[in-house]
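Input chain follows. Return structure tokens only.
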Amino acid sequence: MLPDMTRREAIGPATQGTAVSAATRRRLGLAAGELASACLVAMEERQPWFARLPADQRAGVALVTQTGVANFVAWLGERGETIRLTAEAFRIAPHDLAERLSLRQTVDLVRIATEVFERHLPPLAADEAERRLLVESILRFGREIAFAAATVYAGAAETRGAWDARHEALVVDAVVRGETDDALVSRASALGWDPDAALQVVVGSPAADAPRGPTVLRREADKAGRSVLAGIQGSRLVVLVAEPSGEATEDVLGQLVDGFGPGPIVVGPLVTGLAAAHGSAREAIAGLRAAPGWPAAPRPVAAKDLLPERALSGDATARRRLVESVVEPLESAGGELLHTLAAYLEGGSALESCARQLFVHPNTVRYRLRRVSELTGRTPTDPRDALVLRTALVVGRLDADEAI
């Protein structure tokens, strides 16, 4: 069984039944001001950065130190009040003190103050027993001060984290809704985001443990040297991924998959700057809505690779992209390419049959299909590309009919 150091016999025979006398406490009280000044002098001598603090920050440290000295003297008469009195020393400090000083710096100052206490207080004891008790009390009080400081910094970190999460959600929501005002740029900048950085919007379902998803995303993004902003909107997780190089990086996006839940993950097009992020978000969300139409889609999948499914689900942007990327280049190159492609696809993708229908040699069909591939980036003999090309032809006909 571990020893219980709160038992009186664990303190040792020299201090059993010993208490600091009222006379000694009065001497300590009279020396409190001088002791606080000695602490500040020692801090300035041993920590060069302390002397460079602004006057208001030095005054804040002085206030905490003076309160700590006064509380120590009061605690000697009321040993059960340790936690309350030490916490009070930090409650009266200026609110921004914890933001200006790091936890390491604060612990260094507490250590210096404790050493000053150990050097100057024991000689004020009435006898050896009181001296031992003062040394023990200084160590215990210094420990409680350190714990109180850690509590203050933990609270500040939690507050900052909650503030960041709210602003992050507001930025993501504004991007999705297309609000590209100064407030969006201001909030993103406050989170350390470069408003001019190229980015992609990635959309999927949130993880079963929803709060864990953004944490995993940030950890993986940090490893890849990327910045991310994430927000959960009902049944979808929306993530902004910065691309400092200005080029999409598929391997980085693959590392973020673990931050999403099951189901499709759709990546919007790369855009330049936060002001253009809504376009990427709009296409990614449209792709997520249409993704069930392609069960074998890779994970993640680019929104541009879901153009047929998006067009069938009523996405006007996808219809326009299909016409621009397939129909218009083929029309500009000459009508025979468009006619040959339609005959090939609608005839069951049979080369010989297509050649007979067009009254040309099969090699002519091969040449024209090769030209189609060069102009559109889609290979008619590939089943997936054939679907994209055929959908583009249908959409082009419908748009032409509507224009009449």
